Every structure is written in C-alpha cells, then in structure tokens.
Amino acid sequence: MATEYVFISDLHMGGDEQLTTLDFEDELVSFLEDLKEDGGDVELIINGDAFGLWEYAEATGTDTLERVIEDHPRVFEQFRATGEEIDITLIPGNHDYDLACYPSYVDRLAEYNLTLEPEVAITREVADGTVWIEHGQQHDANNRMPDWGNPDALPVGYFVVQRVVAAAGRYSEHARGDWLRDIQSVAPMEEIPRWLVSNYFYREMSPLLRAIVVPLLLFFNITILYLFGTVLETIGLLPPHVFTDNPLIRALGAADYLLELIIAINVVVIGMLLVLAIPFWFFRRDLRRTLGRFGVMLSGVRVGQGDRPFLNAARDVFESHPDVAVFVYGHTHRASLTKWGDRVVVNTGTWLKKLQHVETWFSRLPGLYYPSFRLNYFRIFPEGDRIVVEYEEIETRQPRDLTRFQQLVARRPPAPTTIPERTAVDPAGPLELPDAGSGPDPEPATGGDPEREPTRAPDPEDD
Q1: Which of 74, 84, 70, 61 is closest to 28 using CA atoms?
Q2: Do 40 and 183 share a domain, yes or no?
C-alpha cells in the first residue's frame, strides 16, 4: 500500500478530429517521468475524466478507448513505464463513464499498468484518517448517472457533448484560428451560446461588416445620452443647442455627418429593441419555465453558484464519516482548497485550457474568453499523526490565442485564487463546518441550484 498519493484529473484525452490534439502532452509525459524517477510508495490517482470518450461521434463502446490509445501512444507508453515503478489508479468521470460500463476495460488498461476502479467513489487511508476520492458528477444534475454501470442510462450532458462538442472537433479546421476545438474548455455548458457569439464577432464575422458594426456599438451609449439630452432640451430643462445643433459638433465638418448617421442608425435600433423587449421578456420567462420542467440548464451546475453543491457533498461525507479528513473531487475544472478546521476539501482542477469570460473596455462590445493553463497536482501524505496536502503547479507557456483586436479591447482577468502550497491537518482534530449553503466559494464561476437539497456523496461500500 502506498504512503503517498498524487492527484490529477480532467485530462480529457481523446475526441474526434481536432479534439485529438493534446496541448499539454509534453508536460504530462514529463510529469509521469518525474514520478517514475522518484519512485517510492506512491500512488497516482486520476480522479475522473482522464479520457474524453463522450467526444467521439462515430466510435462507440470499447472502440473509443482504442482510439485514445492509438492517438496518444507516447502518453500510454509513459503510463506503462511509470506504472512499473508506482501504482496508477483511474476512476471514471462523466466524460469517460464507459470505464464503469465495460469490464474489459480493466484488463485493457492493465496492459499499460493502469488500475481501473469503476466506482463512484473510493477511499485511501493516510495516517489515522481517510481520504475520500470521487469525480463529482453525481452532484451535477446535468451529468448525474441515473444507473451507474449501465451504458444506456445517460444524462443530458452526454447528448450535449455528442451533438455539440464532438461536432465542434470535426468542424474546427474550418474556423478562423482553430478556436472551435476549445469548446471542451467552456464550462459550464450554458456558456456555449455566449462563447459562440463572442467568437463569431471577433473571429468569424466579415472584417468589413465588423468595421461597420463596431462604431455603432461604441457610440451606442453616446446615442442614448444624445436622446436623453434632446428630451431635456425639448421640455426646457436644458438650454437649446447643448445637444442639437451644437456649434462645437458642427465644427467637426464631415465627421459631424458621420456621427449623425451613426446616431440615426442607433436610434432606429433602439426603437426596434423597445418594440421587441416586451414579447421577448414573455418568451424568455416561458422558455425558462419549460426548461425547468425538464430539469435542463436550470438545475445542477449553473453559472454564478460556485462549488456549493460539491462543498455540501463534502460536508455530508465529513458528518457521516468522521474518519474522513480530506475530500477530493474534480469535474468543475477549478482547482481549489477549502479548509474547515482539521478537514480539507480539494478540487483537482483540470489540465485543459481554461477559458475565463472577461468584459471589454467598451461596454457594448461582446465579452470574450481569456485563455490560460493551470497545470497542477496535489500530494497527500502522512507526517507523524498529521495529514499533509501539498499543491504544486507545473510551468507551461500560456496560450496566445487572442486576436490583436481582442487584446486591444479586453480587460485583464483577475488572478486565479491562490492555493496554499502546504496544508496540514490532524485527522482527530475538530471539524469546523460553516453553515450549510453559506460562506465563500473557492472561485466564483459555476455551481448548483441553491434551492436543491445537497446530494450525499455515495459510500463505496453501498455497492
């Protein structure tokens, strides 16, 4: 049995066409080589979504894993070499849920010294405490498996990936800048429409059309101010010629006529928006109610709720299993560490490119998605009677995927939440839980329905 555990997750290796590309292959192979050279009583645990099996549209069943092995021979050979020196364990996530459905995967992965445990959650003993390990999809209503181990019982998230993500991989080469393949990095899936609109505007729109639209958007606020000022002049609250027939504006010459044209077009657009606003409001409310009845998009992991459902699940585990000192999960692609007294909740993040929505310096221009990598891993090991959790990031070149225009208008995203390099807890120490549903999330992004009862993490002994 190992005395030290290393955790990574959400590699999402695999997928049709452009999704086959593994941006971090060199870093992953180097990471595995270092584990091999260090050796010792170490177990590497990949807690879900090691593979992107859902991202294949034509391959099905066990053929999907064969495609991953075929497309990434260098990684699998390094798995084999590293697995000769240390233990490597996989558990299924949602994107590689097939690993829980076909027993033949156990023997196939064993050929590369990978041990598959097809469970929702597993545990490991460290010092006098227990580490609870899961992927976390069971706390996300859009990706929760209704019948674990049944390959035909699939959540709504599967069909979104099959119809949208896999298609994006096939058509990515037709896009300007190959941006479509980054659809895997858009989380949660509700963000996909806004991400598509943003990339259409900044990358796919005709340059001539964009040259016309951008000034209209930039002067939209000026148009509103102009209309408001004109009304104030008409009712006598402002003297005339402040906005209308202002001599300073007339002095602009030809630029004045261009400005008046832009304002006139925007006035027409504003009028149309006002006419459509009321029916659109009724349509949007009815659509939300309809989607809510089907449990789509309005439950589970949603924009604005952070990691609350997963923290609630950790709370349930700590309360029902007093020996558990560390709760490890992934799924949300946001690395974090939350400490409650002598208990720790760890989110292992992702090695995929991360896309963070940021606003522009000009409020009417669409927001854009700032790319970055945060390749990371956690180590958990005993130190006397205590359990130590160490965090480390792997240096890598950050992507330069933004166009010059995007770089010009984009605000810089906030720095990611700092994760302490070392955290030590006493498994026999006190559990200091915040009130249910309260307290800050590790990183503000997506989350669950605050009105939904927290889901208890499953006990692997219940199977």
Answers
A1: 74
A2: yes
